[in-house]
């Protein structure tokens, strides 16, 4: 059962391959609607909940934080309460096997020392499951709040919850407000490739199919009450990510000048975190998960997917999307 409010980034076309399956059901609903979520639980009797519903774009959280408070905090509360009441009434076997899997972000941990700021960059720290929370944006603060709620429902009510915190995802079907699809599509359209500040912010990149495998492994094999960090072992500066995309496009769809010439530096995001990097050792040791894609293999697959799926791209790039891109980036020149 897929529950989605279908906000600006929601797109049923992304699931067209499975939409006719008798194992798939779609419910158009808001996770803040307790009555509707209760109906869905009663109708479908789930064995597990995988809570991925969230507002997730940091820039949008800066200009409009209310939606992030509502969906990420209030919505999580509603889901937890409906799940708790449903779980409490289950038979013993089903109750023991039930899981509430909350999917979160590494941004709740704040940021890490940047190699440009330390003498010995060989021993730079990584985020672990015990790293203290220090969110720095309205988005990450809302996700941190939801993480705390999930753990509180575990400790207070015994609800069998699991939390996963992942690094930056990329891959097919990524809504084009995010860095990698934005750069690919702007490059192809001859538009500027906006880089915040100097582009030296570091992120750990996780291919979406690797993340999906990890999530399935956690919800089926993970231990209730645990937290698992999921990362791709791919620390890259934002500027290097953009260089890689430009060089791939130069190779696959060359033009008279390099795509790198479209790079444009814009004013940095307020409070921009300098570095994220995940230690995924726990999920590797305990569940046997490891990423299968390197950044080089994953980014090539991603670029090729966008080149082959122009109709999907055209369908999701609505007028509202175009207006937001213009407001967010052109105002930073």
From TrEMBL:
Which Gene Ontology BP annotations are present? nucleotide-sugar metabolic process
Extract the InterPro entries matched here: dTDP_Gluc_deHydtase (IPR005888), NAD(P)-bd_dom (IPR016040), NAD(P)-bd_dom_sf (IPR036291)
Question: One GO molecular-function annotation for this sequence?
Answer: dTDP-glucose 4,6-dehydratase activity
User: Where does the NAD(P)-binding domain start and stop, copy by copy?
Assistant: 3-302
Keyword annotations for this protein, in alphabetical order, are:
Lyase, NAD
Required co-factor(s) are: NAD(+)
**Which major enzyme category is it?**
lyase
Q: What is its EC number?
A: 4.2.1.46
Reaction(s) this enzyme catalyzes, per UniProt: dTDP-alpha-D-glucose = dTDP-4-dehydro-6-deoxy-alpha-D-glucose + H2O
Query: Has UniProt tagged this entry with the keyword Chloroplast?
Result: no
Q: Name one Pfam family in it.
A: GDP_Man_Dehyd
Q: What CDD domains does the entry give?
A: dTDP_GD_SDR_e
Q: Could you tell me which NCBIfam families the record lists for this protein?
A: dTDP_gluc_dehyt (TIGR01181), PRK10084.1 (NF007490)
**Similarity comment: family membership:** Belongs to the NAD(P)-dependent epimerase/dehydratase family. dTDP-glucose dehydratase subfamily.
From the Swiss-Prot or TrEMBL record, give the protein name: dTDP-glucose 4,6-dehydratase
Which species is listed as the source? Salmonella enteritidis
């Amino acid at each position: 059962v897929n529950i989605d409010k279908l906000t600006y980034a929601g797109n049923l076309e992304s699931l067209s391959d499975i939409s006719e399956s008798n194992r798939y059901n779609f419910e158009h609903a808001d996770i803040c609607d307790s009555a509707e979520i209760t109906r869905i639980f009663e109708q479908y009797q789930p064995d597990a909940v995988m809570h991925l519903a969230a507002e997730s774009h940091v820039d949008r959280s800066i200009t409009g934080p209310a939606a992030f408070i509502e969906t990420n905090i209030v919505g999580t509360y509603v889901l937890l309460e409906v799940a708790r009441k449903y779980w409490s009434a289950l038979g013993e076997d089903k109750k023991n096997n039930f899981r509430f899997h909350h999917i979160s972000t590494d941004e709740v941990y704040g940021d890490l020392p940047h190699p440009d700021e330390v003498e010995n960059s060989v021993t730079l720290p990584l985020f672990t499951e015990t790293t203290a929370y220090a969110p720095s944006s309205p988005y990450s603060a809302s996700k941190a709040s939801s993480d705390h709620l999930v753990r509180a429902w575990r400790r207070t009510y015994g609800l069998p919850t699991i939390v996963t915190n992942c690094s930056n995802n990329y891959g097919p079907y990524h809504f084009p407000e995010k860095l990698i699809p934005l750069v690919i599509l702007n490059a192809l359209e001859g538009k500027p490739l906006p880089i915040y500040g100097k582009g030296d912010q570091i992120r750990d990149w996780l291919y979406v199919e690797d993340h999906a495998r990890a999530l399935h492994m956690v919800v089926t094999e993970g231990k209730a009450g645990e937290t698992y960090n999921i990362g791709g072992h791919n620390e890259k500066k934002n500027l290097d990510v953009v260089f890689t995309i430009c060089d791939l496009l130069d190779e696959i769809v060359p033009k008279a000048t390099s795509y790198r010439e479209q790079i444009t530096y814009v004013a940095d995001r307020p409070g921009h975190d300098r570095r994220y990097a995940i230690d995924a050792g726990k999920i590797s040791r305990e569940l046997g998960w490891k990423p299968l894609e390197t950044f080089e293999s994953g980014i090539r697959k991603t670029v090729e997917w966008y080149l082959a799926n122009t109709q999907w791209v055209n369908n999701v790039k609505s007028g509202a999307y175009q207006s937001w891109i213009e407001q967010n980036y052109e105002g930073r020149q």
